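[INFO] parsing input record for 3-isopropylmalate dehydratase small subunit
[DEBUG] input buffer:
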Amino acid sequence: MPDPTPPAHPAPHTGRVWLIGDSVDTNQLAGGGLAGKDRQDTLRINCLRGLRPDFTDHVRPGDILVAGENFGCGSARQSAVEALQLCGISYVLAESVARIHRRNSIALALPTMTVPGITGLVTDGDRIEIDESTLTVRNLTRGGHLPLPQTPDSVREIYRAGGMLPVIAHRLAAQGIHPPTTP
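[DEBUG] output buffer:
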């Protein structure tokens, strides 16, 4: 169960950049076409397949997706966030993020931040460090840095708990309410 006190900032995260362009919609994030062995595998293998056919073969846990303007536009599908998580993406930094996609990212605990100028700071494959305690993203490959937005305590609590459902379950349990378990 998550600790109900506001969480501290996570330790700095270092990862490899996957740079994509503007107006990447949820159909591109959770597209179709290839059938996997199950729902999760299908989401994973189709993630960004139309934009970056090499993405799912080479993405690794801890990698960071950097996008241009209007990231996550389109339909309100949570599967777009799930697909990124299944590929191992740990953060999304974008010039701007569609509001519904940001809300889905919070609900599923995938830190997704608007960082103006981020596409000018990085190139594909760069290593960057995201430090929420100093509110800075640094390019470790080529140098340079940008400020990060402050993440509200309530959102950090959701991230630390692993998503909105665990937060709700914890709060209900604190009131003596336990949801039914499925067989």
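[INFO] The domain at 16-174 is CATH 3.20.19.10 (Aconitase; domain 4).
[INFO] shutting down worker
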